[in-house]
Amino acid sequence: MQIAPFGVEQWMNEYETRCRHNLAETCCDSITVEELLQLSDQSPEHLHELLGMRLTYGAIEGSDRLRLAIAALYEHQTGKNTLVTHGAIGANQLVYLALVEPGDHVVSVVPSYQQHTSIPESLGANVTRVPLREEHGWQLDIDKLVAAITPGTKVVSLTNPNNPTGALLERPTLQTIADACERAGAWLLCDEVYRGIDQQGSGTTVSVVDLSDRAIAVGSMSKAFSLAGLRLGWIAGPAGLLHDVTIHRDYNTISVGMIDDHLASLALENAEAILGRNRALVRANLDTLAAWVDTESRVLWTRPQGGTVTLLRYDADLTSREFCVGLVEGAGSVMFTPGSALGMEGFVRVGFGNNSEVFDAGLPLVTEYLDTLS
Ligand SMILES: Cc1ncc(COP(=O)(O)O)c(C=O)c1O
């Protein structure tokens, strides 16, 4: 099966472990096992539970404890409406494998995480891309999206909050999209790995899975929960859909690791403590970024509303890859992600979830780099 190379993952693989200031990070500052225990009000003795754990495959679809803790992130879901996967990356792939066949019509809002266009295309689907536009502040043209959904459309996909723009769709817009999907008999797949750390209010926007029987949400421990090292994600959706996904999942997952399942359960049972920490982090970092953008005439942006990433348009006569390679291999060794890896030439993606010291130290070095270009 042919599939397009995954631009962002290749870029990360090239530079992530070599840069000094990682401003390409999409995860909220990762936590240690010790920090997880502290945030969960547990003493180190808690780990004794692991000493006696026989490392079998564990519960195939995820432990009941974990599935209940996942369900609690939603308004109307039960453990039976959740299925545990190898990260959100495993979740997205399984949903497409279960739903998409050659010749199917898929609608994807772009820019997005590349899985949402390249996987359905690799499965032989015709993918209609509905673009978010810079001149509209990356806000979705809802009429365009609804017009693209036709009877026979199989899947409509979104990332909310959006990666890479940080644009956020609120409940009324999500409901309009869900209703359009229901009318057309399409599935609505929403990749919600950045849910829970929005810039305003409680930080949590409604999940599509609570809005319609034709909606599927994908979530993860990696981004808003700072635990990418668990490699654990999930699908929340109607039981019938999860049954179809399970048929594929049996071929490539069996189960996730028992230790990962255990630590993810602990984290999600203490979700508010972790999300609270991370909301404070992304809100502070975004204020720092906004102050820098205000004084830096060579970059333009639309302030993001959620998530950990946003796009900056830069003023330099370089491709985005040249710009980013020069920045990461230069004196400051600051890492951004080139827009070309996301289908957004002329932009760079910056991540504002990393710890504030890295973030504060990195931005002045970007200014120094821009000085060398002018
Ligand atoms: C929108 C989106 N979905 C899924 C993933 C994959 O996440 P995970 O680490 O849970 O596999 C990423 C990672 O960057 C992402 O940005």
Give the CATH H-level superfamily of the largest domain: Type I PLP-dependent aspartate aminotransferase-like (Major domain)
The pLDDT mean sits at 97
Enumerate how many helices there are, as a single number: 13
CATH T-level fold name of the largest domain: Aspartate Aminotransferase, domain 2
Structural class: alpha/beta
CATH architectural name of the largest domain: 3-Layer(aba) Sandwich
Low-confidence segments, ≥5 residues, pLDDT <50? none
Q: Widest sheet: strand order?
A: 2-8-7-6-5-3-4
Instruction: Name the hetero compounds present.
Output: pyridoxal-5'-phosphate
Estimated share of beta-strand residues: 15-25%
Please provide the count of β strands. Answer: 13
What sequence of helices (H) and strands (E) makes up the elements? HEHHHEHEHEHEHEEEHHHEEHEEEH
Explain what this protein looks like in three dimensions.
- This protein has helices at residues 7-15, 33-39, 48-51, 64-71, 87-99, 115-122, 142-148, 171-184, 239-252, 258-269, 271-295, 320-329, 356-373; strands at residues 21-22, 82-85, 105-110, 126-131, 153-159, 187-191, 215-220, 233-236, 299-300, 309-314, 334-335, 337-338, 347-351.
- Helix 5 (87-99) packs across helix 9 (239-252) and helix 11 packs parallel to helix 13 (356-373).
- The model has no long low-confidence stretch (mean pLDDT 97).
- Helix content is 40%, strand content 15%.
- A seven-stranded mixed beta sheet has the order 2-8-7-6-5-3-4, with helices on both faces. Strands 9-10-13-12 form a four-stranded antiparallel beta sheet.
- The chain has two domains: 7-32 and 273-373, Aspartate Aminotransferase, domain 1 (Alpha-Beta Complex), CATH 3.90.1150; 55-269, Type I PLP-dependent aspartate aminotransferase-like (Major domain) (Aspartate Aminotransferase, domain 2, 3-Layer(aba) Sandwich).
- The protein is α/β, with parallel strands linked by helices and 374 residues long.
- The protein binds pyridoxal-5'-phosphate.
- The site of pyridoxal-5'-phosphate has 13 residues, from helix 5.
